[in-house]
Amino acid sequence: MAFQGTQLNGNLTPTLNLGVMYIPRFRARANSAFNANTLLTSCDTAFPTGKGPIVGVAGTFTVPGDPCNKPQHSQGFLQFSAQATFPHIGLAAQAYQYEIYDITTMTYVNAVWNFNKGARANPYVAGQFLDESSTGNHLVGLVHNSTYGGQFGATIAKNLNLIVGYNGSPALSSVVAAQNCGTASSPKAASTRGVFGGVSDTSTPGLPPRLVTCWRGGIASPYTDNYATDPLYTTQISQGLADVHKPGTGSKIALAWQSNDKRLRILASNACGITRCRARFRAQATATLALSSTSTFRTISTTYAAARTEVFGFASATQIGHSHLRRSISSTAVPSSSILSEALVVRA
After folding, report:
1. Distance of alpha carbon 157 from alpha carbon 164, whole angstroms
2. Which of 37, 137, 151, 240 is most solvent-facing, going by the fewest CB within 10 Å?
3. Which residues are CB-neighbours of 134 under 8 A, at least 6 positions away?
4. Which residue intervals of the chain are DSSP H helices?
5. Whether CATH 2.60.40 fits 2-347
6. Closest listed residue to residue 52, CA positions, set 64, 38, 41, 40
């Protein structure tokens, strides 16, 4: 992934950084063009530009019966950020406000507290909160989500760390027309009329004909959908709560080992989740290995910060540039997502 836009940020104090960023276009992994759309509002039917036919662009066409046409265009997103660190008490916090035009307004905050740096276990706790609501033209339908999460990590043996994470998205419900419960979101066409990720419940007694109780509350993540690169503590290498469009809960446990010279890392993790419609979205174990002949992986905490400050897939120089924030608090903390997933985020 790559983005086109502009950014301004700076340190107001040695411990506080403020920034603003506007991104009008992005390029998905399978495309070679920067487009004014998102992973929730477009799916590719003609490489490299996606939808077709596009006037003046050779090689674009319309696939008969393709539900993706015509594309929904987004004007990108505006981000405001604040990042603060307090090394003397082992605390770092970040806050981001997004206006993803015609899709959602999103607030995301997280904090990490290394509460006993002098201990051999060097433990830390972390928390995160996401709140979003549909805005503008509601290109992907009605969105309203609140997701929270917690994480604990500690060194349990030499070079071996344990990380446990949890996320939850409470379910909400509305009574709507049956045809408006659920939108055909990525990789199918988006809808401006329906409930994003809605699940119909026809068992509610007393409802008039053609009305249903519609369960909702899933995350709409326009720039990480189906990429599994969001910062939730329970996202696994292939899927997480943000990819299923349903409310629910997720948990994850991981073990991470790093060699003394910090050139070899091995991480094994297992994550699972249950959505509101009682479907298990993923239960899997992964084991990943990273080997570096240089200082690419200088410390695990550097990779952690770069990945965890990638808020729902939006890479920025400010976020990656402050990867040493987390390292200054704890040199043994490790990421909650797999190394391969982190590499994809940092590289995006």
Report:
1. 16
2. 137
3. 103, 104, 105, 140, 141, 142, 143, 144, 196, 220
4. 241-244, 300-308, 317-321, 324-329, 339-347
5. no
6. 64
Determine contact, residues 310/231, Cβ cutoff 8 Å. yes
Cα angle 256-258-259, degrees, rounded to a multiple of 5: 155
For residues 190 and 71, is the Cβ–Cβ distance under 8 A?
Answer: no
What is the per-residue pLDDT across 132-191, written as a single tens digit (0 to 9) for each? 999 998 888 899 999 999 999 999 999 999 999 999 999 999 999 988 887 644 334 445
| Joined tokens for residue 267 | 């991480």
For the whole model, what pTM was predicted?
A: 0.75
Would you list the DSSP string of 219-233?
---TTTTTT--S--T
The two beta strands, 124-134 and 280-291, are unpaired
* pLDDT tens-digit map of 9-39: 999 999 999 999 999 988 888 777 787 888 8
CA atoms within 13 A on the CB side of 82: 9
Three-state DSSP string of 61-127: CCCCCCCCCCCCCCCCEEEEEEEEEEHHHCEEEEEEEEEECCCEEEEEEEEEECCCCCCCCCCEEEE
Q: How far apart are CA 326 and CA 315, in angstroms?
A: 17
What mean pLDDT comes out for the span 41-64? 53
Q: Are 227 and 213 in contact (CB under 8 A)?
A: no
Per-residue tokens: 92: 């770092």
The string of pLDDT tens digits covering residues 284-334 is 445 555 554 433 333 233 333 222 323 343 333 222 222 222 322 332 333
Half-sphere exposure of residue 348: CA atoms within 13 angstroms, side-chain side: 28
Calculated CA dihedral for residues 288, 282, 100, 4, nearest 10 degrees? 30
